Amino acid sequence: MHVSNTLPEWRERRRALAGCTIGFVPTMGALHRGHASLVERCRCDNDVVVVSVFINPTQFNDAGDLARYPRTTESDLALLQELGTDEVLVPSVTDLYPAGYRFKVTADSLTNTMEGAFRPGFFEGVMTVVMKLLNLVRADRAYFGEKDFQQLRIVREMTAEFFIATEIVACPTVREESGLALSSRNTRLSPASREKAALLFRALAATFTADEARSLLEDRGFAVDYIEEHWGRRLAAVFLDGVRLIDNVPLPTREDHRASLS
Question: pTM score, two decimals?
């Protein structure tokens, strides 16, 4: 595994990959089994696996949230080595924003709801950094998890709109045995809160309406930003003990509604 810490170093590495199929997994580090599943899928599909580790400041509208984001580069690299990653790109902020945040990618209706409504500027930051990384890596395929379903939709439509040749591959959400979706933010939950957080998945999957899911979660002490239904999915963002969690599930059926929530 080779780690490129600068863009000139990466560009030299990229030239040597001509003729290979390249898969790309963009991450913000703090890697877990969810990220590992993306890398494993990428390894199956491509000659070369490229992973980026970059905490993108432009997608944070809360400086405190950015400061609290876990930074675990040493353990991240060890996991990527174990997974058989070929190339890791670890750029600096000045690498990706050499002139600051002068140019950004924006969109209309897709970014005005849910995460876009509650995190102003978030999707502009995401789209901008993903565009930069896709242009740098020039992969055949890039892998994104379905946990961030709205983000997945936006990235897929952005790449089509700008004629970027990279295929965007969706991968299923990886969950703990309790049903809690794996997330880097889960490390900020206490053991008791982590157990309680699993109710988010069960509420989304087993209640018949979004309003029922909201009522159940609020009754159990969750602060709900939104629960909405789009693209055949039910999507939600909640706070539990100061930690913001997101999840989504396929729209439940009446059979799901009968499932136990105990």
Answer: 0.94
